[in-house]
Amino acid sequence: MFKAIYLSRDGEQFSAVVRELDDAALAAATPNDDVTVAVEYSTVNYKDGLALTNKSPVVRTWPMVAGIDAAGTVVDSSHAAWKPGDKVVLNGWGVGETHWGGLAQRARFKGDWLVRLPDGLSTRQAMAIGTAGYTAMLAIMALEQHGLKPDAGDVLVTGASGGVGSVAIALLAARGYRVAASTGKAAEAAYLASLGAAEVIDRATLSAAGKPLQKERWAAVIDSVGSHTLANACAQLRYGGVAAACGLAQGMDFPSSVAPFILRGCTLVGIDSVMCPLPRRQQAWQRLAADLDRTKLDAITRVVPLSGAFDVAREILSGQVRGRVVVDVSA
Question: What is the pTM of this model?
């Protein structure tokens, strides 16, 4: 038997509980998977918050074990790449949406979805990074692919005190970029500075409707907010600047114009963490292991037991979570 956060729905009745399940139930729910993992840690991302509170139709198959992330040890495998004892990380691939997920003590996945835990990272640290930090690295890799270098100018990070924002600031600052952090939490200025932000700006300056073309400020943007915030950030890009869009905390809409793209030669890049090809995932995780300051990672992380994920889900949707939350599934 193992414990898991089990989501179910009967008509309009939604239930989210910690429930004991057995291997037979797991096998029945994942008949085509070839690797069984003893999960050690998971985490709570924005998407998990939506699923655990039923605030958005994230879950597409019922019943569901929640959790889009997992890190742990292979205990059984018929996949050629994996053997018992291997340490692995899982992000995305519809896990926690259409496939039983990682907020559980045991999980079964397709071997082709797994990434080997990089040397120097523990499973706890991997989940302190989680999809949020992995997404931040994918965004930075995209900006660099478009030619961004530290001497190009300031980089704006929106949703700065959240998981993506916190990791992005730490990574960018470590690589010599001057980072401006956008947040609605003035009290978090010292926290953001400790991660490496050189400037903190009020998110209110970006969150309302603005002109399609504004004063040039940013060489690049990492945006996890969407809507007017992303539109204004793009309108403030310098000539040839690039914005990476990876979230929708403010909204899924993009009330912008073509002006920044055809008058300043700017680029908008979409960051998909869910179906990202395996080689790029592996590259991102290797970069995270090499580039991310563990001291800063510890500073942005707190740990909760499996049952604590419900409170965190509500907090993350109301914007009360700073940094990252690791779920110790054995606690």
Answer: 0.94
